[in-house]
Amino acid sequence: MKSKSGAIAAVLPMYIFTLAFVLGPLIYMLVMSFLARGASWGITTEVTPRNYLHILQPAYLKTFTQSLRLALLTTGLAILFGYPFGYFMARLSPKSRDRCMLLLIIPFWTNSLLRLYGWMIIFRANGPLDVFLMGLNITHAPLKLLYTYPAVAVGMIYALLPFMIYSVYASAEKMDWSLVEASRDLGASSFRAFLTVTLPLTMPGLYSGIILTFIPSMGLYFIADLLGGNKIVLVGNLIQEQLMRVHDWPFAAALSVILMLMTTLFLFVYRKITRAVGSADSKLEGLV
Amino acid sequence: MDNIKKSFGKSSVLNGISLDAQAGEFVTLLGASGCGKTTLLRIIAGLENPDSGNVFLDGREVTNLEPNKRDVNTVFQNYALFPHMNVENNIGYSLRLKGYPKVEIKKRVSEMLSLVQLEGFNNRTPSVLSGGQRQRVAIARAVINRPRALLLDEPLGALDLQLRRQMQIELKRIQTQLGITFIYITHDQEEALNMSDRIAVMRGGLFEQIGTASEIYDAPQTSYVAKFVGNANILRGKEFRLLSGEAYAVRGEHIELTPAEDGRDGFKAVVTDKRFAGGQLRLSAKLDVNGAEVVASRQGIDSPLKTGQRVLVSWKKEHEVLVADNEE
């Protein structure tokens, strides 16, 4: 048997790493959020709640609600498209499955900013999308989609959908499909079999997919930057702006703290809900 | 079932199969792996559609009916218990689908639990059950609806020998108690002989012979059946005054081996192997006339005969069964 000190030595690097790169910066940020900004840039040692009071201004509150709305929309649409995609991908033959996976991975070989520039070109007035739609006589004037809310939403979903697909695929692929056959055999229609067997058993994938899309969608700022211009301002943009342009570090820190609290709160509520749903699954009251 | 044919891609799995199971009958589909027995079962269950042919249930055609619309249930080879439901919810699943009141479901589930002797297991999850217990839950789940027929796909395959013997008796008891038609798949001839009212020996997507256990065992029609069921010696050739396409099947327990010095009637041979297997002593001997190998089986663990010893091989006329030789 290994000695206890050996075990501690083995996990020690992990503790040091966590302390230095996760906990340390967090505390630094939290402390900074209660300090005042320096005259030109940097901070002073004056302790003040001013930064947080500042956030309560309607303009900033609006940014938060807009971010939250967009994150929920993105996650919702990611579920809508990503779940069936991952599900059907898992049902393909191994060969087509690999091909499908490759098609999903290839875009990642290109820099994500470049891909967003691609969307900018597509959405631009009289860009390919307009040419296409007007060519088919579906629209008669340029849509002027670039720098609008829908453009940002499309960009978000485009960037985050693969994560939903992977998560759902991973759990659907592990599923024992004879369970679905068993459920059909026992009298379930294919829809009922999906509700009572497939869905509960692929839930873990859906859960992690939701986390993987929701959290980044709260923070991603360059998508709103490129596709939303300065018209769509999300919390991420606000933080970036305060940090890089206004040089108000304490305010940026306060915004970050609030963003983190919001995300944590979401995860907390979400865990509560999924736990409740999880125990309902096992009783199957709501589904069957 | 009538003239069922099925092929996957270029390989044809079932080549026109017909079988009529009586209500309450225990029919076994016996065959080596790859003979198409599982495919046939899946066609009966509705999990697979035949290329041609029809499936009837109580005189009603069900060939293209969805599996959930058929009054047959399946016990899957891997049991396919729902891992996210406890034993009670697994067994009561089909009743819940039908919208039975909770009290009724509860009552029938406990009836089933006592039928398979798992009283008090209601709240366990399948993952904590042993193989034999899962098996029982799978059976209970499949029969709670009182289907017209229960399909069992090598249900005892994953269990150890002792448990398998015990479950054979259990299954037979459950079948008699419920009076449900069982269509049972196995590759184990002992299982088939122990439980079945009728056995259909399958080979290459066709039925080789259908009959009661004793018909199959004592009066095999082909060399394949004789060999597959009970491991008979197949003797062929003009040395035995047989035409081509004919063979004699003689079971190991009917083969006599006597030391050459005894001077009895028989074929001269030499003992090539002696081994103890499956509760029997097996002696192999190679015949001088045509080099064929015969295996004699004996009770007991040893015999005075030694490997390399010259012997005479004989059997009584009444123990040789003339069969069609259909093996390469």
Write structural notes for this entry.
The complex is a heterodimer of chains A (288) and B (328). Chain A has helices spanning 4-32, 50-55, 58-90, 94-105, 112-123, 128-135, 149-174, 178-185, 190-219, 222-228, 235-244, 249-283; strands spanning 35-37, 43-47. With 288 residues, chain A is mainly alpha-helical. Chain A has one domain: MetI-like (MetI-like fold, Orthogonal Bundle). A two-stranded antiparallel sheet of chain A has the order 1-2. In chain A, a hairpin with a 5-residue loop joins strand 1 (35-37) and strand 2 (43-47). The longest helix of chain A has 35 residues, at 249-283. Chain A is globular. Chain B has 328 residues and is α+β, with helices and mostly antiparallel strands. Chain B folds into 2 domains: 2-224, Rossmann fold; 233-324, OB fold (Dihydrolipoamide Acetyltransferase, E2P). Chain B is 26% helix and 30% strand. Chain B has 8 helices and 19 strands. Chain B has helices at residues 37-45, 87-97, 102-115, 131-143, 161-178, 189-195, 213-218, 223-228, and strands spanning 2-8, 11-17, 26-31, 52-54, 56-57, 60-61, 72-75, 149-153, 181-186, 198-203, 206-211, 233-235, 246-250, 256-259, 267-277, 280-287, 293-298, 310-314, 321-324. In chain B, the strands form 5 sheets. Chain B has a 6-stranded mixed sheet, sandwiched between helices. A 5-stranded antiparallel sheet of chain B has the order 14-18-15-16-17, with no helix packed on it. Chain B has a 3-stranded antiparallel sheet with strand order 2-1-4, with no helix packed on it. In chain B, helix 2 crosses helix 3 (102-115) and helix 3 packs across helix 4. Chain B is elongated, with a radius of gyration of 24 Å. The mean pLDDT of chain B is 84. The interface between A and B is medium-sized, with 22 and 27 residues.
